[in-house]
Amino acid sequence: MTVDATAPDSSAADPSALTVRPARTGDVRAMRDLIEPYVRRRILLGKELVTLFEAVQEFVVAERDGQVVGCGALHVMWEDLGEVRTIAVAEGVLGKGVGHAMLESLEQRAADLGLSRLFCLTFETEFFSRHGFVEVAEQVVGPDVFAELVRSPDGGIAEFLDLAHVKPNTLGNTRMLKRL
């Protein structure tokens, strides 16, 4: 996941000009365009357009001056656990609080759903650390939940479980967790 390099500060653009809202189907192509540069740099895994449409309800977008400048998703994994996924910010607004605002929105959505833990698999450890995430090496779920999650066809769940067949997707990423 790619996010702002710095938290918002007094030099950031006027935060009132930034709106974070649930994504709509009309945002999907803009989301794909935001994600694509990070796919080319091998920071994010590519997503087919159909996959983005299927998951649009998981996403929020950040808008500034009527333009989508960021996107990110919350994927529910289990009754108490969700994953922050696919955070991408337009290059022109990196460091302006866009990633921070989207992550806050996703955390609020997670709390509203009753989740108590958030997971992420990221290269952006400094960003997530500033937001209360800590690195984890051990299994985050017990054996019974692991046995259920391993049945999921979702590739992100396989990455969370650290299954061997997805290791090439996760090389260099750090597993992080936050308690809400």
Automatic annotation (TrEMBL):
CDD domains: NAT_SF (cd04301). Residues 18-152 form the N-acetyltransferase domain. Keywords: Acyltransferase, Transferase. It holds the Pfam family Acetyltransf_1. It comes from the Bacteria. The keyword Cytoplasm does not apply. Transmembrane segments: none annotated. NCBIfam families: PRK07922.1. PANTHER family: AMINO-ACID ACETYLTRANSFERASE, AMINO-ACID ACETYLTRANSFERASE NAGS1, CHLOROPLASTIC-RELATED. This is Amino-acid N-acetyltransferase.
